[in-house]
Write a structure and sequence with these properties.
Number of helices: 8
Largest sheet: 9 strands, mixed
Helix content: 25-40%
Strand content: 25-35%
Distance between the termini: 30 Å
Radius of gyration: 17 Å
Order of helices and strands: EEHEHEHEHEHHEHEEEEH
CATH architecture: 3-Layer(aba) Sandwich
CATH topology: Rossmann fold
Amino acid sequence: MVSVPIHSSERVDDLLTNDLKIIQSDEVFSFSLDAVLLARFCSVPVRGHIADLCTGNGVIPLLLTTRTKSGITGVEIQDRLADMALRNVQLNGLDEQIRIVHGDIKDAVERLGHGSFDLVTVNPPYLPVPSGEQNVNSHFAAARHEVYCTLEDVVRISSRLVRSGGKVAMVHRPQRLVEIFCTMRQYRLEPKRIRLVHPRLGDEANMVLIEALRDGKPEVRMLPPLIVYNEDNEYCRELMDVYYGRQTTLGEKEKE
């Protein structure tokens, strides 16, 4: 592990896979299950170019390195998170595979190139900006609400970054599924694989994983639902396997 500066409010956690480490802080939004699921759900090119929008502290690029040799570019607008992401890359000695771009995703096409990527991943803020009082912590507010980018911004930019025939993978809330589908089709992204995530058997889904194909034909696969907790209130076997690195893909074998 490479030595990097760790600030007083930060800690170094295990990513529980491939001996990866990650710098986190309770003062900013730490990664959660949705990021792990997205990194294991998306179809990755063996070699190519991947962009991760709203990358936060860089958890998705870190996890993707366990699945591919592709170059990965993470884009993050918040100063503190972009700095954490950069140090996380350095901490794990992944400078040659991952680069972190500090900036607005709305400028990403101009900075990174139209159609330059084989895959775009994004774990965006899930909620519109509320009309009332927002979370006093600006980092938490930006992680949860569309402060810096809307759903349409995310879809539009993803569509322009990915090449024709490339893929865009997103994790979001099922309540916005119709809006997501309509917006994707507006920007030439055709949903191809969908998997709903349920906390427990009998509960409503609280996450949805979506993979779309740029300029794809209309045909979608509904994958089996993922039930996070079993009857013993423990992670299900599939989730344990991907969370602890025993399996690098979620539900399906890696495609060559």
